[in-house]
Every structure is written in structure tokens, then in C-alpha cells.
UniProtKB/TrEMBL annotation:
Belongs to the flagella basal body rod proteins family. The lineage of its organism: Bacteria, Pseudomonadati, Pseudomonadota, Gammaproteobacteria, Chromatiales. InterPro entries: Flag_bb_rod_N, Flagellar_basal_body_rod_CS, Flg_bb/hook_C_dom, FlgC. PANTHER family: FLAGELLAR BASAL-BODY ROD PROTEIN FLGC, FLAGELLAR PROTEIN. Transmembrane segments: none annotated. Residues 10-36 form the Flagellar basal body rod protein N-terminal domain. It is found in: Bacterial flagellum basal body. GO terms for biological process: bacterial-type flagellum-dependent swarming motility. The basal body constitutes a major portion of the flagellar organelle and consists of four rings (L,P,S, and M) mounted on a central rod. The rod consists of about 26 subunits of FlgG in the distal portion, and FlgB, FlgC and FlgF are thought to build up the proximal portion of the rod with about 6 subunits each. This is Flagellar basal-body rod protein FlgC. GO terms for cellular component: bacterial-type flagellum basal body, rod. The keyword Ribosomal protein does not apply.
Amino acid sequence: MSESDLFRVFNTSASALTAQSVRLNTVASNLANASTAASTPEATYKSKQVLFQTVIDQENPNRASMPVRVADIVDSPAKPIPTYEPNHPQANDDGYVFRPAISVVEEMANMMSASRSYEANVEVINTSRQILQRTLQVGQS
């Protein structure tokens, strides 16, 4: 592995850390709004999903280390869940409030996946840093 390849590993892991950080923030937003109510379906919070994209090196498309970026954050197409709660302050004239179609279990699994991916990329950076330091030490001998 050449020195430039090692720096590409840093770049790839750093970009993945940034992407997973966005994913964690998006999941946190979804969880925070999971039980919010609205008086109309249009005003109901829509859960968000992060779409990732690999950034391919145009000069060498077969390169093993490729950065990742957040391509977009999209709203879920799931329809809000109407709940009959006539005493709720946001109930409409028919007594319904609308809640987002968010599965807390799925969001927690998504959070765990993002967290593990984040941790794995931190380990890659730490290991790469150690290899780079050892390489520099060998060069000093």
C-alpha cells in the first residue's frame, strides 16, 4: 500500500464519518417527531431518509477506496396515521389527529447501524494513522 493509498483511506473514512453523522441526525429527528400530532395530513411530519452516493474517481474508476457523500435527504412516502382523539387540542372537526408513519423499532435499528458504521470508520482512521506513524518510524531508522 503506497502512502497516497493510505491518504485515500483517510479520505474515504472521513467522508463516511460525515455521511453517517448526517444519518444519525436524521434518525434522531425522526425519533423526536415520531409521536407528534397534526390536524391535517399535509401538516404531519414526514420521516426522512438519507441517500448515500459513492464518489468515483474519474481517472481511476476501479480504485478500491472511494469517498461517500450524502446525495439527498428524502421524505418518506408513507401516509400519516389518522387517530380518533376528539379531546386532543389539534383534533380536526371530525375528532382526528394525524401522526407520522414512523416505526420506532426501525428507526432504532437504523440508528444502531449508523452508529456501528461510524465506529468502524473511526477504527479504520485510527489503524491507518498507526500504520502511517510506524511507516514514518521505519524511515527514521
